Amino acid sequence: MLKTGAGASLQPFLAMEVVRAANARQAALGPGDPRIIRLEVGQPATGAPALAIEAVQRALTSGLPLGYTEASGLASLRGRIARHYRDFYGTTVLPERITITTGASGGFLLAFLAAFDPGDRIALASPYYPPYVNILHALGMQPVVLPTDASSRFQPTVALLQAMAETGQGLPDGLIVASPCNPAGTTLDDGELAVLARFCHANGIRLISDEIYHGLNWEAPPATAAAYSDSAIVINSFSKYWSMTGWRVGWTVLPQDLLKPVLRLKQNLFISAPHISQIAAEAAFEATSEVAANMDRYRRSRAHLLANLPAAGFTDIAPAQGAFYIYAGIGDRSYDSIEFCARLLAGIGVAATPGVDFDAVRGHRTIRFSYCGPEADMIEAADRLAAYRDS
């Protein structure tokens, strides 16, 4: 028998499995059948900003070879990102600390490989973004899940880390935070993030701050870990706020001691992020009015679903402070979120992601809705879900 590696036993990212199932169901629909409404994944209905597309069109006809860039990325893009930190957060981040990545996913891989060794323990709050756990497992590292609840808005706290130490487990080697988080949509405020960042720095815990949903904040401006810790790794991308999921371009802000390790990893694993995507990303920063219009649409869709989902039977909803997700309990209707979501897709053509993707223990009683699709679809989804409850 041929050998297979440990990676062959990884759990799937269930949201992507739902995407596949919804695509298949859509393709099998007959004429006149109601189409599938997509609430299963954070795929904005809009594509890349028009200014980004125009920049790409110019580049494609310019005669430039659009070959490799330096592994750390185009100097002009790194400089533009540094300006973003100054303008958006009021924080100074030197371009030399920024590396362009193949989306946030590439950033996580680089960060984990540079900061940790196989066997290291990395803590994260539950519910969580599934690839955190799956990538760590693939690299032989140990995710340590902190079972959070509504009392901490599903975010990690210093008290939870201290409790780990007091129970003999010791402090973790790393901590992943996400604010706004996926799937719960909750946030850490300025003070909470500062306390966590300083605790991690003082106790030798490498903090990794996932800031991919920054800008999609509905209650208070986002805070960046770069403002509070020189040892933290910040990960961001153009996928969500700038609606550029398929372009696979993001960035990391790195501490001084990881600059050269990440550069070497990047040179060997990826060479560089796609040149054309970097050009698009730099232009996207100037698309302020288009991005603002997207934000207005998300805000209306969020409000509509929060107002109407309770009438459809979803009364247990996590505070949707940011991102574009609603994490809802279904414990009074089902104890099997995979089966429940399959029923929604088959019965009313609404695709949603089972909560067990985000919480292997408690997620059987939750599901996640994404509201970044077309605004009309959010209205139609609420209507179908309400009718399904009454049927």
Automatic annotation (TrEMBL):
GO BP terms: namely:
amino acid metabolic process
Q: Which cofactor does it need?
A: pyridoxal 5'-phosphate
The Aminotransferase class I/classII large domain is annotated at: 36-385
**EC class:** transferase
Question: What EC numbers are recorded for this enzyme?
Answer: 2.6.1.-
Its UniProt entry gives the catalysed reaction(s) as: L-aspartate + 2-oxoglutarate = oxaloacetate + L-glutamate
Question: Transferase among the record's keywords?
Answer: yes
Q: Which GO terms describe its molecular function?
A: L-aspartate:2-oxoglutarate aminotransferase activity; pyridoxal phosphate binding
Does the record's keyword annotation contain Metal-binding?
no
Q: Which UniProt keywords apply?
A: Aminotransferase, Pyridoxal phosphate, Transferase
| Stated family | Belongs to the class-I pyridoxal-phosphate-dependent aminotransferase family.
- The name on file for this protein is Aminotransferase
Q: What is the scientific name of the source organism?
A: Lichenicola cladoniae
